[in-house]
Amino acid sequence: MSTNKSVSLLKAVKPYKQGWRIQVRLIHSWRQKTIYGGDSLEMIFADVTGDKIHCSCKRTYIQRTQCDLRLGEWHMIDVFSLSNATGQYRTTNHTYNQIST
Question: Residue ranges of the Replication protein A 70 kDa DNA-binding subunit B/D first OB fold domain (predicted)?
Fold first, then answer.
């Protein structure tokens, strides 16, 4: 049985569906520590069309993610969830934020 999933563009991903597969390039990353959220790894990804999305990595996955993702390299990501991008500080124009799990 084939398990090939088609690759979606960032503008197509929506939170109502699971199982998206995206091909993105890491263009920026930083560590962030907040009082209410703790330590997190924040990243900006871009797809082949230039659309960008902000991604937050949970504390338990920071070490593995930092080792696997290199700046400027292309990556296939298929395990993530989306949430609405709200608030005063938005790093991209994308409607949603990606949360790596």
Answer: 9-97
Q: What is the CA radius of gyration of the chain?
A: 13
Q: Is residue 49 part of a domain?
A: yes
- 30: CATH: 2.40.50.140
Q: What is the pTM of this model?
A: 0.77
pLDDT tens digit string along 59-96?
888 888 888 888 999 999 887 877 666 666 666 666 66
> Is the distance from CB of 66 to CB of 41 less than 8 angstroms?
yes
